[in-house]
Write a structure and sequence with these properties.
Radius of gyration: 25 Å
CATH architecture: Alpha-Beta Complex
CATH class: Alpha Beta
Number of strands: 13
Order of helices and strands: EHHHHHHHEEEEHEHEEEEEHHHHEEH
Shape: globular
CATH topology: Transposase Inhibitor Protein From Tn5, Chain A, domain 1
Strand order of the largest sheet: 5-4-2-6-7-11-10-9-8
Helix content: 25-40%
Largest sheet: 9 strands, mixed
Distance between the termini: 66 Å
Number of domains: 1
Length: about 450
């Protein structure tokens, strides 16, 4: 009896998405949005975007090596630009990050509606009541290697910047990303810049940091909703108990409360949801005052999904190599950050489609296993296309219908069983303590760092 062939997925979907949506027209429209005039350069806007996305896919040892491979045509992913390396670094130094931000936002707007929301399928009833359910959180970038002369006398770990991300829980995408070259900048201040980009009637999940009256007042101004974990510093005054019942073997209480003192922000009327069992307590606050729209059980079940944005930051840093920054120039760092976010969104769309093809939840596929296969398949596919073009130029009399079907090759597909997530065991490895985590400094706060960043930005 013949063995049944395992279901396979297309590994070229990511590079196809980048080629279909990351077009020269999109780059021109993005640049027209942030700036009107630009003199012609060898490093065009489209070439710059293509180069940085190729850097994310190929992860070269250094930018100088990638530029040499691009000039000599050894890497088909990189654009062939007849210019010196100095021209590239000057281009990265002079071009403001606003262009890459606009490219990322336009690319995300193109891919957001390609498929239905397949991630976190258990929350489909909640997704139907809001325009989107997103998670808001911040993270800092990896430390700068001590190669800058500016850092020779600095004893602290120096960080080049910080991120604030918005993760779409249903579609599994990074819907918004804010990069700040000051790693010590307040996360709440950065959240004020990101919230206006959210659609009306969006439900936002946040950790204890956002459990303030000012944050809920900001959500109200933008016609959004929030579910955050309570912090003890926020004072609550109980107004009315809406419900008390048993839930998951514990006591569940739903209160209408008045939050805040009114000193720094207007007091807010919120729902305070508390669950207790055998000394374990979970407390969340929400400004969704109608239990019919968001039940207390749903709010408690929703909060643990906040960990998904930590997985997004892990994939950006570890899987897409964002922990290794190629330049200390804040503009170049921003380019790498947003190029990684573009590739991440393309990868998540491909992961969602592959899961639908395999009839499994998208969370069952591992990005850490999928991305290396995608990168290799994209490299081989573009190499094959370049070889075919050269062969046809040398053999111009070849019949035009003789087309090599590269997509039928084995390396363009992968078995779904090789991409499954490996479930963690019950034994947890203790995280190693690093004293440097408690002694870090932003590059902007290093002596002379402000002048250094001012010259580059």
């Amino acid at each position: 009896m013949a063995r049944r062939r395992a279901a396979e997925i297309d590994l070229l979907r990511v590079v196809n998405l980048l080629h279909e949506h990351l077009t020269p027209a999109l780059c021109r429209a993005a640049f027209g949005r942030v700036r009107r005039t630009e003199r012609q350069r060898a490093w065009t806007l489209n070439a710059l975007v293509q180069f940085w996305t190729a850097v994310i896919l190929r992860a070269p040892k250094a930018l100088s090596q990638a530029l040499a491979d691009s000039l000599e045509g050894r890497e088909p992913l990189f654009p062939r630009i007849q210019a010196t390396s100095e021209a590239f670094f000057q281009r990265c130094r002079d071009l403001r990050p606003a262009f890459f931000v606009e490219v990322f936002e336009r690319f995300t707007a193109h891919v957001v509606d390609i498929g239905p929301p397949r991630y976190a399928a258990d929350l489909a009833p909640v997704f139907a009541r809001f325009s989107a359910v997103v998670i808001l959180d911040g993270s800092r970038l990896a430390a700068i290697a001590r190669r800058l002369k500016l850092l020779w006398a600095e004893r602290a770990v120096v960080l080049p910047g910080a991120l604030l991300g918005v993760y779409d829980l249903g579609r599994g995408l990074c819907r918004a990303l804010h990069f700040d070259p000051d790693a010590a900048a307040s996360e709440l201040v950065r959240a004020r810049r990101v919230l206006p980009t959210l659609a009306r009637d969006t439900l936002v999940l946040g950790d204890r940091l956002y459990a303030t009256a000012a944050f809920f007042d900001l959500l109200h101004d933008h016609h959004c909703w929030g579910v955050v974990r309570r912090q003890r510093t926020l004072g609550l005054r109980k107004l009315e108990r809406l419900r008390k019942c048993r839930f998951l073997g514990g006591a569940l209480e739903d209160w209408l409360v008045r939050a805040g003192s009114g000193a720094t922000a207007p007091t807010q009327t919120l729902r305070y949801i508390r669950w207790r069992r055998d000394g374990v307590r979970f407390e969340v606050l929400t400004n969704v005052l109608r239990p019919a729209r968001l039940a207390a059980e749903e709010a408690l079940s929703l909060y643990p999904f906040r960990w998904n944005i930590e997985r997004m930051f892990f994939d950006l840093k570890e899987v897409l190599n964002l922990n290794r920054l190629y330049a200390a120039n804040p503009n170049a760092v921003a380019m790498q950050v947003y190029a990684a976010a573009i590739v991440y969104n393309a990868l998540r769309v491909a992961q969602s489609e592959a899961a639908a093809q395999l009839d499994v939840p998208p969370e069952d596929l591992s990005p850490a296993k999928l991305f290396p296969k995608v990168a290799v398949a994209s490299f081989l596919y573009l190499h094959a296309q370049e070889w075919e073009r050269q062969w046809r130029r040398r053999h111009s009399r070849t019949h035009p219908h003789l087309i090599v079907r590269w997509r039928a090759h084995r390396w363009t597909r992968a078995a779904g069983t090789t991409l499954s997530v490996e479930r963690r065991g019950d034994v947890r490895r203790r995280r190693r303590f690093c004293a440097a985590r408690h002694h870090w400094k932003s590059l902007r706060h290093v002596r002379g760092g402000q002048r250094f960043l001012a010259k580059l930005s």
